[in-house]
Design goal:
about 280 residues; mainly alpha; 2 domains; two-stranded antiparallel sheet; 2 strands; about 0% strand; Transposable element p transposase
Length: about 280
Amino acid sequence: MSRISTTSPLESPAVSGKSSHLIDLYEHETNTMIKLSQLSKASVYPSNIERQKVTLVLNVFSEKTSATKPEWKETAAFIDQIVKLWKVFNTINYGRTYIRFQDADSAPIDLSRIDQSQLNFLSSWSEIALSMTPEGQRVKTLTKDTAKALHWTCKCLVAMSQYLLTTASALYHQYLVLVFFQQDDLEHHFAHFRMSAGSNYYKTAEDVAHTHAMDRAKLFLQMEPELNYVSAHHECDHCDKCPSDSEILILDDLPESINNISRDEKMSLFFIGGYTA
């Protein structure tokens, strides 16, 4: 967020943010006992892998951060714009935030409201997203793919809301909460695979397969195997085999050997098992 500028027909002519403001705020609060913002070192100076953590992003784009230094008007306004966008996207139900805290940004989409501010806000952001793409080299702006994704997300949510709230068919709704149109279990799994595969920007199918194999290995280790072959309805040529003396020694010492494995060694076994599975 070195300097990201947007032009909005509904808001101020130009909204931009400077990362230097956040750095100054963090360094100022490190020397004080009372901290007004939620900024941490990782949120201000994130590593490549930490840039993908949602919790660190929420520490930056927070109402507490924008309210701490109101004299930084551009940066505070930019943060407030992003926070408002997330509120509109993530409205969960009718009463949790809207009625309890009287937060109009978290209200369900309802055409009975005269101003229709949320739909107008999303329409505005559908155009703002396209203006945030780099003209030449990428300098702290959205990538073209991200900008197009945000553009079409906002545009489609507006069109879908207007249809569902005005149609005379069985699809008519009195109000809408947009979070239900964006929930996707695949996104959660993809985020897990992306974090597990390291900090490289591009992930391969092989990386995803390795992570999936490691997850399966962890689940197998949590299972309690049935040692009674009769009750388990298992029978094979090896069931009646008499173990050798060396095999008996291994089995006798197995519980103690497992307990002696350190946590780091177990994690190494998970990764080795995942790559060889």
